[in-house]
Specification:
By secondary structure, the chain is mainly alpha-helical. The chain is built from 20 helices and 5 strands. Strands 2-1-3-5-4 form a 5-stranded mixed sheet. Helix 4 runs parallel beside helix 7, helix 7 packs antiparallel against helix 8 and helix 8 runs antiparallel to helix 9.
């Protein structure tokens, strides 16, 4: 956006941003899945004065997003519980991420690419299926770091990049790309001083330094234990590694013509940017593609297990490449000449721009339809039954009694009981069991023997070895939940153990 005045198109972009946030809230506001509930419980414990902990008295950093936990703790109120507030923040963040694309388009004189990002990024499935988690906020902070740097607001850009790092550790990659860009610009003579880099670095340190100091003193390390656990999970034969899982993610979209078209346009945009990089005035958008590429390479190298929310940071790079393709079409149209008729040449350029805008609108409409379909058909069916299990535990068990479960998010949030995580995210010692031939049944038995939970909540017959182990320990069924009552295909049981 201009540093001196607001243009009418800026007002239109802001209005569209608000409309997209409202649409996402209307359609996807009820989207829920298990993993973010771990962070919700941290937020509630912070707000209640229990501390920055999941289980009271256990200073273990099992949330990957301390900033999001703090935001939820600060904004939660009697009218908005943590899951609802998280979804609302996510809808607004996705729309603001799109607005950051628009701001970059203004800075880099690539308005068509800016419109493409404004419309298509918030409605891109890889992004909106992470609603409820920290991912939309984290990505919005990264995108605004790029946008503010493009507008030469380096201190604010550094602040956003630093907040992105506190929101997720891999937010450091966005700061790394922007910092490298500033260094390259300085060496190339485009900037005569290193002042922009210094201002960016100082802005980055404002949120990062206090967090690193606090986390080191409070937890013993600023690194969440979950990364090592998920690396261990990735070594299991039954797990799908991140890079291999990308092929599965691609398969989700191959059935839709709009996504095949978008992929083709993104490929052309990537190729044109490489071929015409020196002459390409919108090459700044390639910073987003570079960021996404580095992110993919980093996660593939880490060898973490494949989770759908890990792929969301690839969306900005994809949309940026698509936008560059459409912008390049308009740029090429300006070079078409019809003899001495400048008016006809200008008309062709305007028609090309209008055609690109119509295509963006059509693709946006199709993605909006996809969002509606996703909300109706792909919602996590476990939410209802997991919540019922958690509420039963809260109402029928002593407050200090521990509960073991393979997925602790929703059950732990509603039970308010100390949780033993059979997947190792809350008790990282469990991850020592994970090896090539290990299964989650093995991990569950190891956790059961080590931590002796008073209750176990599990899908009936899903962990047969654990079920045999608990039978030997005289655990008895305390409650049974029929999946049919909650729209879920399997039943749940709660075992009480001696």
């Amino acid at each position: 956006m201009s540093r001196t005045r607001i243009h009418p198109t800026d007002l239109l972009a802001i209005a569209l941003c608000a409309a997209l946030a409202g649409f996402l809230w209307l359609v996807m506001g009820g989207w829920r899945y298990d993993d973010p509930y771990i962070t919700y419980r941290y937020a509630e414990n912070i707000r209640a004065g229990i501390g920055f902990v999941y289980n009271p008295g256990q200073r273990i950093l099992s949330t990957t997003t301390p900033l999001f936990a703090l935001v939820l703790a600060g904004l939660q109120n009697p009218w908005l519980d943590a899951p609802t507030l998280a979804a609302l923040i996510g809808c607004i963040s996705l729309a603001l991420g799109g607005l950051a694309f628009w701001a970059m388009g203004r800075a880099w004189k690539a308005q068509i690419a800016g419109w493409a990002g404004l419309v298509l990024y918030p409605l891109f499935p890889l992004a909106f299926v992470t609603l409820g988690s920290e991912t939309p906020l984290y990505l919005a902070l990264c995108l605004w770091a790029f946008a503010l740097a493009a507008h030469k607001r380096y201190a604010l850009a550094g602040l956003c990049a630093g907040l992105a790092f506190v929101a997720r550790g891999d937010g450091a990659l966005a700061g790394l790309v922007i910092g490298a860009w500033l260094v390259a610009a300085s060496l190339a003579g485009n900037q005569s001083k290193i002042t922009p880099l210094i201002r960016f670095g100082l802005g980055w340190l404002i949120p990062v330094a206090p967090w690193l100091i606090f986390a080191t003193l409070y937890f013993g390390s600023p690194l969440p234990v979950t990364m090592a656990v998920k690396q261990a999970q990735g070594r299991m034969a039954i797990s799908t590694p991140f890079a291999q899982g990308f092929a599965t993610v691609q398969g989700w979209y191959l059935g839709g013509w709009q996504y095949r078209l978008e992929a083709a346009l993104a490929g052309i945009g990537a190729l044109s940017a490489i071929l015409f990089l020196r002459k390409n005035k919108m090459a700044g958008f390639w910073l987003l593609a570079l960021w996404s590429a580095i992110y993919f390479a980093s996660y593939a190298a880490l060898g973490v297990s494949s989770y759908f929310w890990y792929y969301a940071p690839l969306a900005p790079g994809f949309v940026a490449a698509l936008g560059m393709c459409l912008q390049q079409v308009v740029a090429w149209s300006t070079h078409i000449r019809f003899g001495e008729s400048q008016r006809l040449s200008a008309l062709v350029s305007r028609l090309a721009a209008m055609a690109c805008l119509v295509l963006i609108g059509l693709l946006g409409f199709m993605q909006a339809q996809s969002a509606i379909g996703t909300a109706r058909l792909a919602a996590d069916k476990r939410v209802g039954i997991y919540r019922a299990v958690g509420e039963w535990l809260n109402a029928n068990t002593p407050p200090g009694e521990s509960v073991g479960a393979l997925e602790v998010g929703i059950i732990g949030y509603y039970s308010h009981r100390p949780m033993i995580d059979f997947a190792g995210l809350i008790q990282p010692e469990v991850a020592q069991v994970f090896g090539r031939e290990a299964t989650y049944d093995d991990a569950a038995i190891a956790a059961f023997r080590k931590f002796h939970p008073a209750y176990i909540a599990q899908i009936e017959n899903a962990l047969p070895a654990l079920q045999a182990e608990t039978a030997r320990q005289n655990c008895a069924v305390a409650a049974r939940f029929s999946g049919a009552n909650y729209g879920y295909a399997q039943n749940m049981i709660i075992l009480k153990c001696n």
